[in-house]
Amino acid sequence: MAETVFAPWDDPNEKPLIRFQNVTKRFGEFVAIDDLTLDIFEKEFFALLGPSGCGKTTMMRMLAGFETVSEGSIELAGQDIAAVPPNKRAVNMMFQSYALFPHLSVYENIAFGLRRGNMPKHDLDARVTEMLKLTRLEKFARRKPHQISGGQRQRVALARSLAKAPKLLLLDEPLGALDAKLRQATQFELMDIQEKTGTTFVIVTHDQEEAMTVASRVAVMDEGRVMQVATPERIYEAPESVYVADFIGDVNIVSGQSTPMGEDRYHISWTEGQQPLVAASDRPFTDGQSCHLAVRPEKIAISAERPPNVDNAVQGTVLDIAYLGNLSTYYVELPGGQIIKSQTANTRRISRRSFTWEDTVWVSWTATAGVLLAQ
Amino acid sequence: MQRFALIAIPYAWLLALFLIPFVIVFKISLSDIALAIPPYTPTLSDGVGPFFSALDFENFAFLASDDLYWKAYVSSLRIAAISTILTLLVGYPIAYAMAHAPEEWRPTLMMLVILPFWTSFLIRVYAWMGILSQEGFLNQFLLWAGLIDAPLTILNTTTAVYIGIVYTYVPFMILPIFAALDRLDGSLIEAAEDLGCSRLQAFWLVTIPLSKNGIIAGSFLVFIPALGEFVIPSLLGGSGTLMIGKVLWEEFFNNRDWPVASAVAVILLLILIIPIVLFQRNQQRQAEEEA
């Protein structure tokens, strides 16, 4: 039996859990969210990714009920939630600062939400214990928040927001305060917990690696608009705009004019006196249309001799070399001043570097290595 | 050595301005009244032996036998306690509003709270006599507004004392509560609402407990001076207002009975030590929590 792929967004019969419909949010003159439409499905781990000030936190705060919508509507499980105050929503939030109650113990922090409902004492205790176990905090139940480490605090915040079994959990930069090592471990823990509880997670982050690691789909935002919503692979390999290509990972952008050559192939004339580049594209381009070719550095090979049978090969000189341990990135200056980054994996230990500064080299890539973008 | 010199300064201060005067007052409280200058015996000029043998606890026994003093202490405690609660009820909303006011307003609001200290306390209490008296501004206003038919008697009652104490000490309540509320992280309130609290519940379960230290500090700062308050009850309170500060004044200056007055002062200090120690412990615990 083939395993079904989790992709409710491709199924037209699937009803979204959250539906943003033409949502606009203004703060005075400033437009924080600009006519935004977006569906998020049940059991998704959805990431809102963007630079600070792009409106991702505002979207999350509107979901939690701390901000009202200026125009449009937000539906949760088919119901417009505009009039529902935060304390009546089946939505819980994990705050960036964790917002743990400093006067309450870890146990009482987790029990806080449950105590607001009329849960019998026995059930409450069982639920809190379950949460403590889920987040491996049993030993710290009696401690106060200031008596535990940052990573433990993060887990208390998670346990507290999950305790009421919300339909939707919002995570505002949940790992921002942790150091790099702990952050990685916690990312997998978050995914694990999300899978175990089956809760829909919406995470806000400015860290693209974090978004790519944890999310089933990523929405890249800029200036109050969603630029693209797709799975991490598609966001990386098939960005729809230069902004998305540039925001996620490293990319080379070569701008030029397209000439259709048939069979989804295009020639791009990019600088005077150079061979046009060859690129494949599903998206149609007209003759002479200005376009941008985006190629990831790891898809560009570097060699001393011109490699035979490649679609694109350009000669240039090595300008800079960035040695990152596992990878080396060569910055190659092409005629006309364009700089192309080429990345190679350092698979062998203490191998002699083939190229050094000022060397003349060839950079090459195939027609399908890049994405041709109109904007 | 340097460290010793540094801590010696506050101790020297305490010794010179508190401990030595207290020992003198305590000595007087053990003496007998005399028609002399100073108005008590014995003095050290009587010789060391007779000096010590003449001291006794007679005045304290007298305080215990006359229920005027007991009543004055109890009444003072009651008035101080009630006015502390009233000050809290007035001061908390002001502090809360200040902490939630727009950033650019806060220095002005803070200034307004502190501004009354720029004029003499005595003048401000006299001003209240003008406001509260039969022909005062308050009665004039209420009569003009048609809310009352005959002027209210407020001056020379305990009510006037409460008004005076609340007015005088409310900044001492506002400032520590404001400091506590100002530090309060707004996301805590949002977290409480997110977890199912109404606004009121969030206030009760999060804001109040987290401003507890401010409330305690403010309450002591009002209660301690209010207990020994003399000016307010003697200017605003009538003969019906019994407060220990007033009794103390009358013993010293009307009766010229320094030994009994000193005994009253010693007892007052002993009563005050309890809240002062509690206050100190609260401050210390707060400092430890923040560390």
Beta percentage of chain A is 25-35%
The side-by-side strand order for the widest beta sheet of chain A comes to 6-7-8-3-9-10
CATH class of the largest domain in chain B: Mainly Alpha
Structure class of chain B: mainly alpha
Q: Any idea what the radius of gyration of chain A is?
A: 25 Å
Q: Percent range for helical residues of chain A?
A: 10-25%
Provide the succession of SSEs of chain A: EEEHEEEHHHEHEHEEHHEEEEEEEEEE
Q: Please, what is the average pLDDT of chain A?
A: 90
- Structural class call of chain A reads alpha+beta
Instruction: Indicate the multimeric state.
Output: heterodimer
Whole-number count of domains of chain B? 2
| Tally of structural domains of chain A | 2
Largest pleated sheet of chain B: 2 strands, antiparallel
Keywords summarizing the entry:
heterodimer; A: 375 residues; alpha+beta; Rossmann fold; OB fold (Dihydrolipoamide Acetyltransferase, E2P); six-stranded mixed β-sheet; five-stranded antiparallel β-sheet; 8 helices; 20 strands; globular; B: 291 residues; mainly alpha; MetI-like fold; 2 domains; two-stranded antiparallel sheet; 1% strand
